[in-house]
Amino acid sequence: MTKKLIKLFSIVILLSIFSGCTEEETKPNSIIDNSGSLKVENINITYKNEDAGIDVVFTKEDNIASDILIEFKQVEGGTYGSTIKASDLDDYRIPVGKYNASFSRFNPDEYIDDSRKLHFLPIFSGTFDFEIKQDEITSIDLETSDSEGYAVTYDVPQDLINTFGSLELHVMQNISELKFDVEREKKIFFASSDDIGNTYKDGGSGFGVHLSTEIDDRPYYLSKIYIQREGTNHIHFSLSDFTNPTDGFSQKHSVLNFKEYVLASVSYDVYVSKELNSWDKNNDLSEFKNIKLDENGNIIFLAVSFLDNETTVDQSLPKSILNFPELETLVVNYSYGVKLWDEIGDLLPNLTHVSLAQTSVTLPESFYKLNLTYLDMEKVQFNDDIKSKILGFNNLEYLSFQYTETFPDVRHMKNLKALRLEGPYIWEDGAAPITIPSWIGELQQLEEFGLEDTRIYEFPVTMREMKNLKKVYLYSNDIKEFPDFIQYLPQLEEIVLSVNKIEGEFPLYLTEFQNLKYLNLANNKLSGPLPLEILNMSSLEKLDIIYNYFTEEDIPQELKNGDFEFLYFGQQVAE
Q1: What is the pLDDT of residue 38?
Q2: Rounded distance, CA 103 to CA 41, Å?
Q3: What pLDDT score was predicted for residue 27?
Q4: Radius of gyration of the chain measured on its C-alpha atoms
Q5: pLDDT digits (tens, 9 = 90+) for 125-178
Q6: Per-residue pLDDT reduced to its tens digit, 203-219
């Protein structure tokens, strides 16, 4: 009897469990089980601006859907709600029910710490209702005629069309460009309702415009900074805007256009204006400072520095520089917010020397097409990807840049004669010191080596074999004694060991270096009497020992009267 009761009780339990599972399976246990999807079928956004005579319609084909935010809330069938980009709807499931929704293109997060960003798409918002049915796709249309935003229009007079022919308009957006085919009619582009660009120095907002056409089967560019002030939203182009070419479309015309653009876009215009003062229409091109010509009168060297860009975003420099196909050297040092041109690798085929020292710069992909032999990017920070591309310039003879974590492998650069490196500024207590690989001694062709701002204090013995080395710059490191390899290189002409922790006396072997012209030992912990044998260094032009522990008695009067520049004032106090 007991066994029968137990068996019967077990059957009842199993039936109950089975019955419970069946009933549960008829209920949705997740969104996926009872849901559908939403799809944006059409977009129709109308922008109206009666003052400018604008009535423009944007559709889905205008690529404005990618950053539309849709916020929806369930009003029947549940309490579900969410916010999602329209571009993510394809893989998104929504519970069955009826919804109220709003949409907008404006995302406030776009503007956080990004005051230099320029937007050319309209800002708009609107509302709609929709219903989701199980396993069905609900299509919606986004429509509104109440668009916000700031429209900029332009028109082009006939004289510009007659002069240039077919024209293309380039407007900077972030680090890319928008291009428009110019016709003799009003065009339109949009910016954010907050600001069309960065606030300009004398009010309003500025942004760069570049016109391009073809002359002699190659592109010809003119550039201009335009300022949009409050209450205005229309630009009128004229030929005189782009530096009226009194002597035709010449190199001089392009240089003057470059000057006009630069002075309108930088904040330190007093300094830059002084530097470019000789760039005047009344001067011959050969009289322009910081410009060099070849024997045929072609510009082959151009230098301009201290450009602190004050417009919109990282603007390209005026594209009028691209009108110099024979250009060999370009120098843009100590500048901020500079973008080199997308066409640089194609339109400046002779460019071999580039200096961007201490410049915040954006490099386009075409930059790496250049056959550079000289590249100075002193104190320019970049990521490992850019570092690897820079190391792809196999024909470099001079390279200066800041490496990241490891010493760059340059053994493949067989022509390299000068290597100047700055470390990644790792000075925290306990941080691993920077090391120089032993293969550095294989660079027998090196004539100049520099390593600055690191914790380096040891050097591989292979450096003793660098018999062609003439200049050594080891400024601002963690060196505590004279590097051993130096005594094996009597051919050296310049030695810089300033701002280190070197202790002891002046090395007597240095007085035998008959080629040494410049010796800088400033800001160390050196002490003791200076040897009179220094007077026997026939090539010495300058000796700098300031801010060490030398006393007045340590410095013989004969050295003070020597035939070289001797800097010894400003002694440190011994610890």
Answers
A1: 92
A2: 14
A3: 37
A4: 34
A5: 889 999 999 999 999 988 887 666 556 677 777 777 777 777 777 765 444 566
A6: 556 667 777 777 778 88
Cα–Cα distance between 90 and 66 in angstroms, integer?
12
9-34 mean pLDDT: 42
For residue 501, give Cα distances in angstroms to 179, 256, 430, 530: 56, 50, 18, 18
**Selection from 42, 167, 84, 174 nearest residue 121 by Cα:** 174
What residue ranges do the domains of the chain occupy? 32-144, 150-241
Residue with tokens 């330190």: 268
CATH assignment of 150-241, among 2.30.29, 2.60.40, 1.20.1250, 1.10.1660: 2.60.40
Tell me how crowded residue 98 is: count the other CB atoms within 10 A of its CB.
13
Type of residue at 104: S
Q: How far, in Å, CA of 468 to CA of 105, rounded?
A: 62
CB 370 within 8 Å of CB 390: no
Contact 305, 332 (CB under 8 A): yes
Tokens of 125: 């918002």
Question: What is the reported pLDDT for 62?
Answer: 66
Q: Which position has the higher pLDDT, 227 or 307?
A: 307
The residue ranking higher by pLDDT, 237 or 538, is 538
The runs of H, that is alpha helices, within 373-530 are 384-390
SS3 387: helix
Among the listed residues 321, 318, 317, the one whose alpha carbon sits nearest the alpha carbon of residue 301 = 321
The vertex-237 CA angle with 235 and 240, nearest 5°, equals 135
DSSP3 helix / strand / coil % (the chain, rounded to 5): 20, 30, 45
Q: Across the chain, what does the average pLDDT equal?
A: 79
Residue for token digits 């415009």? 209
| Length, in residues, of the chain | 575
